[in-house]
Write a structure and sequence with these properties.
Organism: Streptomyces xanthii
CATH superfamily: PK beta-barrel domain-like
Protein name: MOSC domain-containing protein
GO molecular function: catalytic activity; molybdenum ion binding; pyridoxal phosphate binding
Number of helices: 4
Pfam family, one: MOSC
Shape: globular
CATH architecture: Beta Barrel
Strand order of the largest sheet: 2-7-6-12-9-8-14
Oligomer: single chain
CATH class: Mainly Beta
Amino acid sequence: MQETRETQGTPGTRDTTGFVTAVSSNGAYSFTKPNRDSITLLAGLGVEGDVHAGVTVKHRSRVRQDPTQPNLRQVHLMHEELFAEVAGEGFTVRPGDLGENVTTRGLDLLALPTGTLLHLGDGGAVIEITGLRNPCVQIDTFQDGLLKQCVGRDEETGAVIRKAGIMSVVREGGVVRPGDTIRVELPQGPHRPLEKV
């Protein structure tokens, strides 16, 4: 369930609080990431020891396109609610299975605007949302048919709906653990919806 409260001193904006349910990282390329007791976020880089950490792109398909691109996918977040949704279609997905670093509960991650800051726990870690994960065919390699559950189309507009989490960059480093709260700080001005990154 999502908690919402007015932000002190900033009329018209709202703070939302959710929770970290799991953290995951992997020092080698693989689709899934093992759960950890904690992860350390490094400002401007990503998750310490994770294969996707760095100033420039680390996802292999993007490295092939242009290895000098800035890394807008330093930290991948996934909402735990998706696991219950796909379970209804017969799929079993657990934290880290889809390669995310931070699994959350209680936040509508996909509805947050570009540039939103997420304050993770009490250790000072702050990440900035850059966009949506673009689900790839590896999801079907993990479990056949799962990709269709992670990408859909809006029945009215026909627009593609990507449900496989969001991407972010680390603004302030710190340690993140399961059970940490997540405080949302919305950006000022007109909000831009998330696009694939």
